[in-house]
Design goal:
This protein has about 375 residues and is mostly helical. The protein has 2 domains: about 220 residues, Citrate Synthase, domain 1, CATH 1.10.580.10; about 100 residues, Cytochrome P450-Terp, domain 2 (Cytochrome p450-Terp, domain 2, Orthogonal Bundle), CATH 1.10.230. It contains 16 helices and 3 strands. Strands 1-2-3 form a 3-stranded antiparallel beta sheet. The longest helix has 26 residues. The chain starts with 18 loop residues before the first strand and ends in a 27-residue tail after the last helix.
Length: about 375
């Protein structure tokens, strides 16, 4: 009997030096460096360059990369006008998918697939994703689009374009950490989709638009928004234990809990949990954190032995909410971070490219014959 790996679980199709995950022990590393160290000591800009280069950059390399990002933040005015013309009811991920595809029309290198061209395009996409997403958010809310600034960090500039106000150093650092934690995560669905598109020798914009489409699905990118819906449904910390016990008794899915890879705590969730607690208490928004804390305890006590623990989405929504970001923009912000991983993985796979073409086990009829239309019942 043929064994089928549903969801391609456990199937190895390539090699990578970018990200390592040990799900049973809750380990995540980029270039061999633990994610906790990246979050504590690095920045999104540095991690993005490290992923593209496959190694830690020198100070001079990082400075040049940062300058390149800042110089490429602006998007074509025609694209700004197009985004402003989108219906305000359009879902942000729909808008992002369309905007990125449209952006490619203005790039003279768009059709080039050499490594040098892919790298140039990757840097522009990393820089411009933040401008596009902020423009989508501002336009949907009937506010004027805010132009990027070149004197702010990548994280700080996004928050500025989103709100129209310069963020504090603490807000900037918190958002930067969130971007670092989401920048890459191995062969997840969107990264695999980008690679599959790239394997046909398609262009980088097509790869990224494909990845956006995969991330848009609620089984991949929408869990942190669903966690916020759950918190609003619970309402107050005093109701959290009974609420979650009822969900577990009914064998219902708990949003932000469980992961295809991790059978222990997602290490990214541990980092975000600590920051969520600090921010929630400082901002006087401790209700959300207290609810999450209670839910985590009940979940770990009741189903932790089955390898089901909170994942990165469990706390990320609370962090974004405390930064004043609406939950409808949580998944686009996921894309804002993951663009680095997508581009780096596409470039890495392209160096030893092979067209992805899996097979399926045929289970249909084997002895059928064509019946003329007029003779069909």
């Amino acid at each position: 009997m043929t064994n089928i790996a549903k969801g391609l679980e456990g199937v190895l199709f390539t090699e990578s030096k970018l990200t390592f995950i040990n799900g049973s022990e809750g380990i995540l590393t980029h270039l061999g460096i633990p994610i906790q160290e990246w979050a504590q000591s690095s920045t999104f800009e540095e991690l993005s360059l490290a992923l593209l280069n496959g190694q830690l950059p020198s100070a001079a390399e990082l400075a040049a990369f940062d300058a390149h990002l800042k110089a490429n933040r602006a998007i074509p005015e025609k694209l700004v006008e197009e985004i402003a013309s989108f219906p305000r009811t359009v879902a942000p991920m729909q808008a992002l998918r369309t905007a990125v595809s449209y952006l490619g029309l203005f790039d003279p290198q768009a059709e080039e697939t050499s490594e040098a061209a892919r790298r140039d395009i990757s840097i522009r996409l990393i820089a411009q994703f933040s401008t596009i997403i902020a423009a989508i958010a501002r336009s949907r809310e009937g506010q004027p689009v805010v132009a990027p600034r070149s004197d702010l960090t990548h994280a700080g500039n996004f928050l500025y374009m989103l709100t129209g106000k310069e963020p504090s150093a603490e807000q900037t650092r918190l958002f930067d950490i969130a971007l670092v934690l989401h920048a890459d995560h191995g062969m997840n669905a969107s990264t695999f989709t980008a690679i599959a598109t790239s394997s046909t020798l398609s262009d980088m914009y097509s790869c990224v638009v494909s990845a956006i489409g995969a991330l848009k699905g609620p089984l991949h990118g929408g869990a942190n928004e669903a966690v916020m819906d759950m918190l609003d449904e619970v309402g107050v910390p005093e109701k959290a234990e009974a609420y979650i016990n009822a969900k577990l008794d009914a064998k219902e899915k708990i949003m932000g809990v469980g992961h295809r890879v991790y059978k222990y705590f997602d290490p990214r969730s541990r980092v975000l949990r600590d920051y969520a607690e600090v921010v929630a208490n400082k901002e006087g928004k401790s209700n959300y954190y207290q609810i999450l804390e209670t839910i985590e305890k009940v979940v770990v006590d009741r189903i932790g032995s089955k390898g089901i623990y909170p994942n990165v989405d469990f706390y990320s929504g609370t962090v974004y909410s405390d930064l004043g970001i609406g939950k409808e923009y949580f998944t686009p912000i996921f894309a804002l971070a993951r663009i680095s991983g997508w581009c780096a993985s596409v470039m890495e796979y392209a160096r030893d490219n092979r067209l992805l073409r899996p097979d399926a086990v045929y289970t249909g009829a084997t002895d059928a014959h064509y019946v003329k239309l007029q003779d069909r019942i």
